[in-house]
Design a protein that fits this description.
Chain lengths: 113, 118
């Protein structure tokens, strides 16, 4: 069965620090998709990125970057020069086969001014 | 923003009463989902639909039923609400990962419904 583990329950850093959110997944399939979602204090879920299992290239989008390593079954998310607006709960998720997302438990990130 | 509307946004009800939550989409997406979010559990899938009148169970389906009579609407019903069903409920939609360059497989979420069962 597929499983996503976000071992960091809460992280607190000072503004402008870099921070990495860890995500480890388990799946038996060779074809799967990995996702990150952001849930700000307002409560909505915002899609950040999708990565398929055949694409191990790292991706950078502004201050956000993602490191996908199949060898360690990890899909980590780094925020560079963090800002207060980055404070949110971040979820890693996995889809295989039947279009059902499995979420990790989430990491609550607090950026202090 | 994906055109997803959940109603109601907040509801307080009593144990034993029936409750129906509605999800409406304007994107004509094939797949629709209902999740619940509880502290310490992230989001867990309740039921999903892969077409009109086609539904399947998710991880936590006991006590819930769903219906989809039109592409745009997906209803979640708690036949007899219990306190353990107090939660935030999210609807999501997806194009379902059609093959080829158009495949996205991304789920977009509604704003959520906060349900309290007293």
């Amino acid at each position: 069965a597929q499983k996503v583990t976000q071992a960091q329950t809460e992280i607190s850093v000072v503004e402008k620090e870099d921070v990495t959110l860890d995500c480890v997944y388990e799946t038996r399939d060779t074809t799967y998709y990995l996702f990150w979602y952001k849930q700000p204090p307002s409560g909505e879920l915002v899609f950040l990125i999708r990565r398929n299992s055949f694409d191990e290239q790292n991706e950078i989008s502004g201050r956000y970057s993602w490191n996908f390593q199949k060898s360690t079954s990890s899909f980590n998310f780094t925020i560079t020069a963090s800002q207060v607006v980055d404070s949110a709960v971040y979820f890693c998720a996995l889809i295989e086969g039947a279009q059902k997302l499995v979420f990790g438990q989430g990491t609550r990130l607090t950026i202090n001014p | 923003d994906a055109g997803i509307t959940q109603s109601p946004r907040h509801k307080v009800t009593e144990t034993g009463t029936p409750v129906t939550l509605r999800c409406h989409q304007t994107e004509n997406h094939r797949y629709m989902y209902w999740y619940r979010q509880d502290p310490g559990h992230g989001l867990r899938l309740i039921h999903y639909s892969y077409g009109v009148k086609d539904t399947d169970k998710g991880e936590v389906s006991d006590g819930y039923s769903v219906s989809r009579s039109k592409t745009e609407d997906f209803l979640l019903t708690l036949e007899s609400a219990t306190s353990s069903q107090t939660s935030v409920y999210f609807c999501a939609i997806s194009d379902g990962g059609r093959s080829g360059a158009l495949a996205k497989n991304i789920q977009y979420f509604g704003a959520g419904t906060r349900l309290s069962v007293l």
